[in-house]
Specification:
twelve-stranded antiparallel barrel, 348 residues, Outer membrane phospholipase (ompla), Chain C, mainly beta
């Protein structure tokens, strides 16, 4: 029972925390470990199967090189499941900006055009874990508050209709250290290998009037597709019910996440350009009100959540906010995001 309950709590956190768009910033077959444990008898394949939809509103987003302030509507679907040997998390979202961050062809600095609608971006990510305690049928990877150590693998991707035309693809792999917190909470730390192997940029394409020089492979990309250096990353998230509140107020929880992504070479990929910096993409705190539990009772816990959060994104997309022309000349202040973020999440 305790394992299942933690899994449900994890589903709640991940469904909420991953809503904040990974976008094109951050988001390989692995040799299998020997399997010694047998599947638990008389249990369904998925011990937990959690699906949610979210609508959210970000009050003060940014788009590097375009604007330092744009409101964004976010629509997202999240899935989280637990099976005998691990977990799977999937998130796909659609982000709609206002006119300050326009769709193609507006925002081309060589052809100022007005009248475009706000840009749309679709992004997705997947993370899967394989618990060492479950795989090896042991408790050796639990000690004190440490609940488990797992292999984690995943990928991120996005596409958009801005003039920039980013189309990100990356993979991650590493370990997850899962810790218990008071009041049925948890804290996960994932040290990772991160490889952004593709992310298009119109501005680096050979033949574009604003491209820095016209030497293919040196100062411009033949098709605009950039490839970055492999680097390190650390992803963290936490969740905890506010169980110290009086019983008639135990409808609140706090959660959060943070991703740190190391420098990945030139901002133009494997051609000349300003060096990238460590990127911080975080939602340090989210306060969630369990509206369905408050209205309909314990049976409907976290069926409908209303939440408010603070969002921080520094050196967005890895761009150096102190040195990149996108951040300092084209749209000053557009590479650091500080924003209030609020929404509603419904389980189905």
């Amino acid at each position: 029972m305790s394992y299942s309950y933690r899994a449900i709590a994890a589903a709640t956190l991940l469904s909420l925390a991953a809503l904040a768009p990974i976008s094109q910033a951050s988001a390989a077959d692995m040799a299998p470990f020997p399997v010694k444990a047998k599947p638990i008898a008389d249990l369904p394949f998925f011990l937990v199967n959690d699906n949610r939809v979210t609508f959210a509103y970000q009050f003060n987003g940014v788009d590097p090189g375009v604007t330092n302030k744009t409101a964004k509507q976010v629509y997202a679907f999240t899935h989280f499941d637990v099976w005998a040997y691990g977990t799977n998390f999937f998130n796909i979202g659609l982000e709609k900006a206002d006119h300050a961050s326009p769709a193609n062809p507006c925002a081309d600095p060589t052809r100022p055009i007005t009248g475009c609608e706000g840009a749309t971006e679709i992004y997705g990510l997947i993370r899967s874990t394989f618990g060492f305690n479950e795989i090896f049928n042991t408790k050796s990877f639990s000690y004190g508050p440490l609940r488990n150590v797992s292999l984690v693998v995943g990928a991120d991707g996005s596409t958009e209709n801005r003039f920039f035309s980013a189309s990100k693809r990356d993979v991650v792999a590493g370990l997850q250290f899962a810790f218990d917190l008071p009041y049925k909470g948890f804290f996960n730390v994932n040290p990772l290998f991160y490889y952004e192997f593709a992310n298009r940029s119109t501005f680096t394409q050979c033949g574009y009037a604003g491209a820095p020089g016209q030497i293919p492979g040196v100062s411009c990309n033949s098709d605009g597709n950039r490839k970055f250096d492999p680097t390190w990353a650390v992803e963290m998230n936490y969740y905890m019910d506010l169980g110290f509140l009086p019983p008639n107020l135990q409808y609140f929880a706090v959660s959060g996440r943070a991703g740190f992504y190391g420098p990945k070479g030139s901002e133009n990929g494997q051609i000349l350009g300003t060096a990238t910096k460590t990127e911080i993409n975080a939602e340090p705190i989210r306060l969630t009100f369990d509206a369905s539990k408050a209205v309909w009772g314990e049976k409907y816990t976290h069926n409908v959540d209303v939440w408010v959060a603070y969002r921080l994104w520094r050196n967005k997309f890895g761009l150096d906010h102190n040195a990149s022309l996108a951040c300092t000349t084209f749209a000053p202040g557009s590479c650091t995001e500080n924003s209030l973020y609020s929404g509603i999440t419904v389980k189905f």
